[in-house]
């Protein structure tokens, strides 16, 4: 999608929609593999899951609301993947700083995702409340 449609109708080209749906499949396989401790599958599934989320964010870069939400999803996947790897490699419970462990480093991308959405909802959207993309 190049630019937001002027008509107020948001449509996704079929090839993009297929990619988004496949992204969900990869994400579910990654998390199922994590849950079942199928380490190789879980780690391999990070690549398509994160890659597709970044491609989706790139493709929606002209629609601020979509871009912000898709970037938040990408950093969520990154945080989730780091957390998973820290458990698999068994350094998640090791002390990092004070009472915080290495698992807590995942807080950084989680907070980045929250800040992206705070930017959108608290700053950008109120200043563009009459734009079609914020309706």
Structural write-up:
By secondary structure, this protein is mainly α. The protein has one domain. 67% of the residues lie in helices and 4% in strands. The chain contains four helices and two strands; from the N terminus they run αααββα. The chain has a two-stranded antiparallel ribbon with strand order 1-2. A hairpin with a 2-residue loop joins β1 and β2. α2 runs antiparallel to α3 and α3 packs antiparallel against α4.
**Average pLDDT level:** 91
Assign a percent range to the helix content: 55-70%
Work out the radius of gyration: 17 Å
For the largest beta sheet, what order do the strands appear in spatially?
1-2
Total DSSP E strands: 2
Proportion in β-strands: under 5%
Distance between the termini: 19 Å
User: What number of domains?
Assistant: 1
Biggest β-sheet description: 2 strands, antiparallel
Features:
single chain; 135 residues; mainly alpha; two-stranded antiparallel ribbon; 2 strands; 67% helix; flat
Secondary structure topology:
Elements: H1 14-36, H2 39-59, H3 64-88, E1 95-97, E2 100-101, H4 107-127
Antiparallel strand pairs: 1-2
Give a short overview:
By secondary structure, the protein is mostly helical. Helices cover 67% and strands 4% of the residues. Strands 1-2 form a two-stranded antiparallel ribbon.
